[in-house]
Amino acid sequence: MPTKFCILFLLFLGNLFFSNAQTKKSITTTKISETIAIDAELNEGAWKNAEIATDFVMFEPDNGQPINPKKKTEVKILYTDEAIYVGALLFDDEPSKIMKEITERDDFGSTDVFGIFINGYNDGQQDFRFFVTAAGGQLDCLATEQIGEDFSWNAIWESKVKITPFGWAIEMKIPYAALRFSSEKEQTWGLNFVRDIKRERRIYTWTHVDSKIGAVIQQAGILKGIQNIQTPTRLFLIPYSSFYLNAGDSQKTKGELKGGIDVKYGINDALTLDAILIPDFGQTKFDNVVLNLGPFEQQFNENRPFFTEGTDLFSKGNLLYSRRIGQTPDFNPTLGAGETLTDFPGSVNLLNALKISGRNKDGLGIGFLNAITEKTTATVSNSIDNSKREVVVSPLTNYNVTVFDQRFNQNSSVTFINTNVTRNGSYRDANVTGLLFDLNNKSNKYIASGGIKSSEIYDVTNTNGVNATLNLAETNGKFRYSVGGEYISKDFDNNDLGINFKTNYYSVYSNVNYRILNPNKIFNTFRISLGSYIEFYKPTQQIQSSNFNFNLNSTNKNNHYFGGGININPFENYDYYEPRVANRYFVNPKNMRGYFYFSSNYNYKFAIDLNPYLTHVLNENRYEAGINIRPRYRFNDRFSLVYSFDYARQQNDIGFIDFDNSDIIFARRDRNTFTNALSSKFSISSVMNFNLSVRHYWSIAENNQINTLNSDGSLSPNITYTSNKNSNFSSWNLDLSYSWWFAPGSQMSILYRNNAATFDRTIDKNFSSNFTNLFADNLNHILSISVRYFIDYNQAKNWIKKG
Questions:
Q1: Which of 341, 354, 472 is CA-nearest to residue 402?
Q2: Rounded Cα gap, residues 468 and 393, in angstroms
Q3: 800 secondary structure, DSSP code
């Protein structure tokens, strides 16, 4: 392994200064004073003399093939002092077959798409991408090679589409406030256009993007001709008002009115300030809670818009898990005789938050995020004297993330990141610092990435830890490979603002894969890979995790997806976490896992996803088997429905259940888990949508044999332990929402939500009775109405002048 590392690293250095230069397409725009109506007509005189961008080339599946002349694409660009205008004619010899499913914002759906990619600094680092669907929907995102496309970012721009006898036409107006560019007199922007003909599953770009090269943004064309423009004042105010009506079987109906404001301000041509005052996240998506029997907490997706929009800089190094901000308090007070903890809060209120982010013309990205949560208390009741007292379970807390990310050579970067959590009073504080690198040679063939992070915890005892990673890879051509390793010391701890489950180990991994770059007679895409991963517990050098895998992914000529693989764990693994006691371990035996995945072409009205899997512990009657089935049906361009069924069974699963004096109690258990989910959407238009999301989850774990964990990691039967540690958990969530974007950036939403959850130790294997009991005196209801109004300072200034 060290020899492979050295060879790959020398190859990387040897190729660092060689590039594969290619001639880039360019188009020159002209300035106009004529008013352009965004109506998809392109009938203004200015369009007639504009230069045309054409001769599109296929990106996938048959990379490099010219577009069929019957589906030629012509694009023109004009500009004023306030915005650029894009006009496109997308020819199609069968316009009646153009797919045009109506979807809400940032959802492609089953529809043809046109997009424009703009890099205002022409540095190959970051695109601002704007898409329009044949149904009139809008999508926008920020894109980098390291992170990919971030559709949580939203801008305010205009577009209109029209189906015509020759195909379809588009007009777009993109204000400069939605872009970032330098203050130079003469602008040169990176530019590309993309067209997705959905029924053929073919994607074309204006300037050829070679799929053999790992980078896309660096292969963009050039937009010339823009001169003497300035970024307008980027000040946006989004006031909101919300009303919540809460009811439940165990509480009285009560109403609550909330209001606040979000602020977005362009500090300069690169940096933007986002701030929320009096936050309201009451309409965010519910969490898919599960019965968690393992040693680690369940990790949830971030659904709060402020923490998802434009946060690519803050994700560097995986040091930020934003759900820490406002999570359930984790400080448990010391209780005296007869005392119990009551009225324990489920979350901590966020007082305010702000972030500053952006990237300048020199490639320096700056990110600053700060959030403050309020002091939160719980009640302690004393059964002896009937007294009560308040205890702090979360002090006033400040969360901070600072990032400096310097990009260079269009495809490489060095990053400094720091996260800090400071709690008021004598509570635990934490600080984590990382220095990261992502180095590509000029031809984007070789990459070296990694970094080092250090943590400092200030508590009753102060601790320091370190985490170091290195990855070397070839990312070009049909054969690609990577090797790497990671080391985490015992005291590395980033869990105050990040999330990390294991420490005190080192690991090595490798991967080699082969893919076809152009379709053949059988496949549109085909890829096979071989990988390995071994993780060693540092104090004993024992293997605590291992995996050798073979995976296949392919798409046939009908665009049906087939995938599968085999994962083999050929060694006994020493699990130092399941026992919940330091320096104790459980020996997991060798096992093998196989899976298959099929996904039919979503272009058809009916499509289905199918994913069966089986894990077998070798030489034992112990296995896990499951299947996921997800049929979907698109009734028409407005209405679609997706049903998902998951079933998993674990037979003779082994895990921790309790402590008994000095003994660690494990159990052999059978576990069955059922998940039924339904999602549906009905779109009146691209700005007015109804959505339904329903999930029922039921999991039971029945202990069959009680064991004591021995010091050598084996188990011995225990006949004295009699506590019932079976688990029966059910949950239900339903969201029915209506959303109306009544003006650019302005939205009214109505949400009805109900939810319920139960947990007990009695095993009832009857699905019907469990489902019925879930709703017995346990159902909560919430009806909320929220209105957000987008105010652009420049428009408001004109309103005032006219007024």
A1: 354
A2: 34
A3: H
The mean per-residue pLDDT over the stretch 596-624 comes to 95
How would you label 773-788 residue by residue, b for 16+ Cβ within 10 Å and e otherwise?
bbeeebbebbbbebbb
**pLDDT at res. 803:** 60
Element at 247 (helix H, strand E): strand 235-248
- Number of helices and strands in the chain (H, E): 4, 45
Tell me the C-alpha distance between 391 and 397, whole Å.
Answer: 16
> Which candidate, 325, 350, 297, 310, places its Cα nearest to that of 419?
325
Task: Report whether 101 contacts 70 (CB < 8 A).
Answer: no
Query: 33 burial class (0-12, 13-18, 19+ CB within 10 angstroms)?
Result: exposed
Phi and psi (nearest 5°) for 544? -105, -10
DSSP 3-state assignment of 761? coil
148-150 and 505-515 beta bridge pairing: unpaired
> Residue ranges of the alpha helices (H) in 375-503?
none
Residue 390 pLDDT greater than 50, yes or no = yes
What is the SS3 assignment for 684? strand
Span 98-110, average pLDDT:
94
- Model confidence over 120-175: pLDDT tens digits? 999 888 899 999 999 999 999 999 887 789 888 889 999 999 999 999 999 999 99
Helix (H, G, I), strand (E, B) or coil at 487: strand
Phi, psi for residue 797 in degrees, rounded to 5? -65, -40
3-state secondary structure labels for all residues of 1-13: CHHHHHHHHHHHH
CA distance 76 to 47: 7
Please tell me the distance from the alpha carbon of residue 398 to that of residue 455, in angstroms, as a whole number: 17
On average, the pLDDT of the chain sits at 92
Give pTM, 2 decimals. Answer: 0.91
The beta-strand segments (E) located in 395-500 are 397-408, 412-423, 429-440, 446-458, 463-474, 479-488
Does a cis peptide bond (omega within 30 degrees of 0) precede residue 539? Answer: no
CA trace torsion 330, 467, 507, 665 (10° rounding): -20
Contact, 631 vs 606, CB < 8 A? Answer: yes
How far apart CA 567 and CA 730 sit, in angstroms, is 31
Angle at 577 between CA 572 and CA 582, to 5 degrees: 110
DSSP of 350-369? EEEEEEEEEE-TTSEEEEEE
Q: Please compute the mean of the pLDDT values over residues 113-118 and round it to a whole number.
A: 97
Provide the residue count of the chain: 803
For tokens 């180095």, the residue is 439
Pairing between β-strand 791-792 and β-strand 780-788 as defined by DSSP bridges: unpaired
Could you give the CA distance from residue 758 to residue 84 in angstroms, rounded to a whole number? 56
Give the Cα separation of 696 and 43 in Å (integer).
Answer: 53
Please give the Cα distance from 694 to 681 (Å, whole number): 12
